[in-house]
Structures are given as C-alpha cells and as structure tokens.
C-alpha cells in the first residue's frame, strides 16, 4: 500500500486531527528554524550511518534511516518530507492514523507502525500502515490477516500488509516479542496467510545488555530465518544510542527518534 492518499481514515477523529495540525502549524519564522534543526540532525545521522557502514564494510545503500516521529506534530513530518524523507515510524496506532489523515496531500509516503499493537487496533492500522514491525503472536497474525483482507475488499488498501516479527531477546513477554524458539512457527504462519507478507525481523536490545551481544544473537536468528524464508530480508534494529552496533550486525533499517527529532515535546497527556 503506497502512502499516496488513496486509503486514509475518514473519521471524525481524523478530521479533528487535521484541523488541530493546521491550528498548531508553526509560523514562517518558527518553521524555518525547525527546518534548520531537522536538516542539521539529518546530516549528522547520515554521517554516523555512513561511518558505521564503512567500518562494517557495508554498502551505504543497504541501511535505511527510519525517522520515528511519535509525539511530534505533523508539521515536523511535512518538513522532513520536503527534505526528501518518505518513510516514517509511529509507535501509537491512534496517533499514527491521525497524522496519516492530516498529511494525505503528500504523495508516496510509507508509514511504519513500530510500537506494540493490540489486536483490537488491527482494523485501523491496516488502513494506514505499510509495515507493522511488532508482530509477536499467532493471534495478532490472524487479526491482521483478517483485517487486511477486509480492507482490501473494501478498497481501503491495495496489496498485502508487510509485517516484521518482533523477537524477544530477553525472553520477557511483558516487553513484547516472540521468544526465539517460537520464531520459526510464527514465520510459517505468516507465510500461510493471504493478506500478509513476511518482511523480516525487528528487535530492541534488552535493558542492561551490551547491544553488540544482543544484535549478534539477532543476526544469527535472521540468518536462520533467511534459510527457510529467503524473502524476509529486513532487519529492523538500532536506535539513537546503538545504531552503529546494529549496522555492524546487519541491520537494514535503523529507527531513530531522539537524535533526529530532539527531546520529546511536553504535552498535556
């Protein structure tokens, strides 16, 4: 599903979000200052990724930067769009849906749901997300497959929903993710669906664990997955503080929020 405005939520909530986005858009001076901040941050991140790829002996084109824009206004995303970015990551389903609705005038955008996803959000997320990074259970697979099929029948999306399996490297179900031993069965289940495409793996290093150790394990799991599912080439790993380690171990997508967007804005929530 392309992010070209063909399938956007048309709810009252989305209309309200669009109005709010317009009302809170920065004036010309503030926008120019924010654009300068984001341009500078992008340049610094590109330099870091370039250096990480050189150190790892990898082609720079093999690693994508995914801006994580949760909590930040749609106006920031629009600035990044005009700086050449087309892919964006959101962690909260409702917030993501509202931003997609408010930015439907921008062509060729691709949206990623990277946060934990409850099954009751499946019907909504399939209408705006191109990729879901946080699939970790057979029940969520079934919910997304059913919802994506219904959305395709209704003309609310075109094509399959791309999904990444979130791996629990600390084996703690409270933090989300499928334990490594259950990964092959879950991958097989996704491959049997009609409306999902297995894209690869995603993981977050456990708290207190050396990122190199965590990403080395993840790389091994990804290599094993590729032997049985060669199309699952995506490895979504690495954030602001550990992207170099992730690139060393084969990440194809680094998800960066703080080092690009800055400190989380203060809200009333």
UniProtKB/TrEMBL annotation:
Keyword Disulfide bond assigned: no
The name of this protein is Pyridoxal phosphate homeostasis protein
Q: Which cofactor does it need?
A: pyridoxal 5'-phosphate
Region (Disordered) spans which residues?
Answer: 1-35
User: What family classification does the UniProt entry report for this protein?
Assistant: Belongs to the pyridoxal phosphate-binding protein YggS/PROSC family.
Cross-referenced InterPro entries, in alphabetical order? Ala_racemase_N, PLP-binding_barrel, PyrdxlP_homeostasis
Role, per record: Pyridoxal 5'-phosphate (PLP)-binding protein, which is involved in PLP homeostasis.
Q: Which NCBIfam families match?
A: YggS family pyridoxal phosphate-dependent enzyme
Instruction: Name one molecular function that GO assigns to this entry.
Output: pyridoxal phosphate binding
Q: Which residues carry this modification: N6-(pyridoxal phosphate)lysine?
A: 70
Residues of the Alanine racemase N-terminal domain: 42-265
């Amino acid at each position: 599903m392309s992010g070209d405005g063909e399938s956007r939520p048309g709810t009252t909530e989305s209309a309200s979000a669009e109005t709010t986005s317009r009302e809170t858009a920065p004036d010309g001076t503030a926008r120019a200052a924010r654009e300068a901040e984001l341009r500078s941050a992008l340049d610094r991140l590109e330099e870091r990724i370039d250096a990480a790829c050189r150190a790892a002996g990898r082609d720079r084109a093999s690693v994508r930067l995914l801006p994580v824009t949760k909590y930040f206004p749609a106006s920031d995303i629009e600035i990044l769009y005009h700086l050449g970015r087309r892919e964006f990551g959101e962690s909260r389903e409702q917030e993501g849906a509202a931003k997609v609705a408010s930015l439907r005038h921008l062509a060729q955008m691709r949206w990623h749901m990277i946060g934990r996803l409850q099954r009751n959000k499946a019907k909504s997320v399939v209408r705006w997300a191109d990729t879901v990074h946080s699939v970790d259970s057979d029940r969520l697979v079934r919910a997304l497959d059913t919802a994506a099929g219904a959305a395709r029948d209704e003309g609310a999306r075109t094509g399959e929903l791309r999904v990444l399996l979130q791996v629990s490297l600390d084996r703690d179900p409270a933090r989300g993710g499928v334990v490594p031993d259950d990964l092959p069965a879950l991958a097989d289940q996704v491959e049997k669906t009609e409306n999902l495409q297995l894209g690869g793996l995603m993981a977050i290093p456990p708290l207190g664990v050396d990122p190199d150790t965590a990403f080395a394990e993840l790389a091994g799991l990804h290599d094993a997955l590729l032997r049985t599912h060669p199309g699952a080439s995506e490895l979504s790993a690495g954030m602001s503080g550990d992207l170099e380690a992730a690139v060393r171990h084969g990440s194809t997508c680094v998800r960066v929020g703080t080092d690009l967007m800055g400190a989380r804005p203060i809200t009333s929530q």
